[in-house]
Amino acid sequence: MVSLSVRLQRLRYRQAFWAWVFLSPGLVYFAIFLILPVLASVYISFTNWDILTPPRWVGMANYTELLQNSAIQRAILNTFYYAAVTIPVTIALGLLLALALNRAFFGRTFFRIIYYLPVVISAAATALLWMWIFQSQVGLLNHLLAWAGLPKQSWLVSPLYAMPVIMWTGIWQSLGWSVVVFLAGLQNISEMYYEAAKIDGADSGQLFRYITWPLLAPTTLFVLVILIIGSLQVFGTVLIMTDGGPLNSTTVIVHQVYINAFQYLRMGYGSALGIILFLFILLLALTNLRLFGSSTAQ
Amino acid sequence: MSQRTSPPLFPPSVGNRRRRARPWNLSLLLVVGALTLGAVIFMLPFLWMVLTSLKSDRQVRTIPLLLWPDPLLFEPYVRAWVGANFSQYTLNSLIVSTAAAAVNAFLSALMGYTLARLRFRGREVVFTLILSTLMVPVQIAFIPMFLIVARMPLLGGNDLLGQGGSGLLDTYAGLLAPHVITAFGIFLLRQFMLGFPTDLEDAARVDGASEFMIFWRIMLPLSVPALITLFLLHFTGVWNDLLWPLVVTNSESMRTLPLGLSQLRGTLYTEWNMVMAGTAISVIPTIIIFIIGQRYFQRSIAITGLK
Question: How large is the ipTM?
Answer without folding.
Answer: 0.88
